[in-house]
Amino acid sequence: MGQGPSALQTCISGIANGRSGFAAYPTTPLYQLAWVKPYNLDIKVLPEAVVRPRDSNDVAEVIKCATKNGYKVQAKSGGHSFGNYGLGGGEDGVITIDLQNFQQFSMDNKTWQATIGAGSLLGDVTERLHDAGGRAMAHGVCPGVGIGGHATIGGLGPMSRMWGSALDHIVEVEVVTADGKIQRASETQNSDLFWGLRGAASSLGIITEFVVRTHPEPANVVQYTYTFLFGKSGDVASTYSAWQDLVTDPKLDRRFGSEFILNPTGAIITGTFYGTETEYRASGIPNRLPSNKEWVGNNDWLTAFARDAQNEALYLSGLATPFYSKSLAFRRDELINTTGISNVFKWTDKQDKGTPLWFIIFDATGGAVSDVPMNATAYSHRDKVLFYQSYGIGIPLSGKTKNFLENFHNQLTTWTGAFGTYAGYVDPKLEDAQEQYWGSNYEELRRVKKRWDPKEVFWNPQSVRPAA
């Protein structure tokens, strides 16, 4: 692939102009450990180069070097792609542009719009917005995830039912396109590109800076946790059924976000309500949740984020491990019925998981996310009310673990007929991935791709393909 590493390295060295720490190659000592740093150790990756530019001009010049020498390009923000797609996704020879130096931040105190560098991690974003006037935006709660990938694929979190997804907050971006030009994109400037970047940015360009709208952060946050310990999965089926009825109720207070987590020791229900405990009680939600073995706490915004991050870390660690994952999105008419819930959970008890480290997360969505028309952005799951994602971790990862998660997934699709999944839960095994990720928006995405990147400079194994 390409004209050879010497020509590429010479080109990149010219951009660095003597700066240290700018780029590394497979011959660089500790290349995998210090530069590549794959997240999913079950997927082997060997980028042709990892580059850490300092500004947008550097990004533009690296893209020119890549195209001149025949290489594909992918951006890496936090580096938490399940398929290591920022590193090539198992296809060797990709140029990775690591955005870790893009940490710029500012707040316009008139519009309350924030400018955020694309290498910023979600934990830092939360603190910077708080320090800039007690502001906030919707995003996930894993503090080590980078906003560059998160906010361009969707960006879902417990506050999304109240405020929408992270990408719904984007007002404008600075982006470097396949021709090496630095562009601005918004509803009024390069609007087709802006449409596609909000849902499929890794296929269309490298965003270096976001301008986002923000909200006053809630003064009070009520957090709920219910733990069902040492029970069989079949024993918690009725609890799951009641939880599913609650979180998919069209009248559910939008200030509430929740997860149901099935694990080897039983199950956990988490809930986050953005309001006072009095408002939480008045919403009627507590009456529909299990009330024994529960923990309820009233926290401020930063404390609540830290607790959510701590809970999430129990399941989605920032540590690199070999893991396997499946996921699915459900419309209201695709929800699994009571009989199906009972059968699937009992089936789960009988399986050889191949590992003690497995968990299955059901996550409420909808609310404000569904207020936005399906074709308003490239993100296509506006009609979904629930997601599930499964994980199995093993050192080494066994075929039994993969089979268990594949067969659990097949059980769900058999009972529900659901099709499609969130591209943030990337699944390298999907054969019809583009249709599952982008649904009815995919053909328009292909046209945008043809206009802005017809030669597929920005590429991974499941990226958008240009229209014929």
Automatic annotation (TrEMBL):
PANTHER family to which the protein is assigned, alphabetical: BINDING OXIDOREDUCTASE, PUTATIVE (AFU_ORTHOLOGUE AFUA_1G17690)-RELATED, OXIDASE, PUTATIVE (AFU_ORTHOLOGUE AFUA_6G14340)-RELATED
InterPro entries for the chain: BBE (IPR012951), FAD-bd_PCMH (IPR016166), FAD-bd_PCMH-like_sf (IPR036318), FAD-bd_PCMH_sub2 (IPR016169), FAD-linked_Oxidoreductase (IPR050416), Oxid_FAD_bind_N (IPR006094), Oxy_OxRdtase_FAD_BS (IPR006093)
Signal peptide: none
Pfam family of the protein (one): BBE
Keywords in alphabetical order: FAD, Flavoprotein, Oxidoreductase
Record's protein name: FAD-binding PCMH-type domain-containing protein
Cell cycle listed as a keyword: no
Family: Belongs to the oxygen-dependent FAD-linked oxidoreductase family.
Molecular-function annotations in GO: FAD binding; oxidoreductase activity
FAD-binding PCMH-type domain residues: 43-217
